[in-house]
Amino acid sequence: RKEVEQDPGPFNVPEGATVAFNCTYSNSASQSFFWYRQDCRKEPKLLMSVYSSGNEDGRFTAQLNRASQYISLLIRDSKLSDSATYLCVVSGGYNKLIFGAGTRLAVHP
Amino acid sequence: EPEVTQTPSHQVTQMGQEVILRCVPISNHLYFYWYRQILGQKVEFLVSFYNNEISEKSEIFDDQFSVERPDGSNFTLKIRSTKLEDSAMYFCASSDSASAQPQHFGDGTRLSIL
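The joint structure predicted for all components is written out below.
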């Protein structure tokens, strides 16, 4: 089983749509969870940390289910600028990050 | 907003040559990392560094790789004898604490081995 597994997509959605990404992780001892976004050939940029109680940042909502080892990201009212690859990232061991392969999102007019 | 900076942005090197990739982490950060991303693949952890020593490394980080913090600001990754399969994007990252805190990434060095 992959350490962090994501649907590769691509998700092609119109502007204004709501889109949800899912992620599962294999290490039940993982303590920290993040969503990063990566534009083509650029560095990963932190989108948001994910907390057990769930958290929201504007149009973005992240959820964590530790029992199922499942993380989700919901994007509401999609913008053209949201087009990117979304990386599910989990802490592994003391201080390394384990990345999923990413889910590609394409928002069209 | 403070950022991690990396140089050069693109490095082209002949197979077998040594290469040094440079990074300046965010100034008050104490934890430093190198990751790599082969074209079309996921980001992979290479090494973490704290208090002037390696705290963790992956199986990719073999004897050909080394890291150093030669002064108070720079953090370098050296590959002693490059191979074709070392061609990738190399990202430096830093954080102000371990574990719970997110890591901030530099914009990467594209390494091309000929």
